[in-house]
Amino acid sequence: QVQLVESGGGLVQPGGSLTLSCAASGFTFRSAAMSWYRQAPRKARELVATGTGTSGYTNYADSVKGRFTISRDNAKSTVYLQMNSLKPEDTAVYYCNAKTSWLNYWGQGTQVNVSS
Questions:
Q1: Which of 13, 51, 53, 116 could be 30's S-S partner, Cβ–Cβ 3.0 to 4.6 Å?
Q2: Is the pLDDT of residue 43 over 90?
Q3: Contact, 63 vs 86, CB < 8 A?
Q4: Euclidean distance between the first and final Cα of the chain, in Å?
């Protein structure tokens, strides 16, 4: 069955860094567009970053451009989100998403708290 398991969340001070990981199984990872979304309290879920499997295309929300980097290791079926220069407004639950022609699947989420 399809699984997406996120890890790497936690508490970090403003200006700090975190790397989130999402280990995937149950589908052809290379064929999937992998994305990170986040949802802050009382706010809608928003797209943070997307990376396609073969073309190398990436896309970022304006709020994270220049600070976050999405990458993927197709051999390990894992997608990463490197987050630098974190701000309090980056506090949210971060979700991994896998999308293909037949799949639109979410991970369980990992909490990121940016606070001093």
A1: 53
A2: yes
A3: no
A4: 40
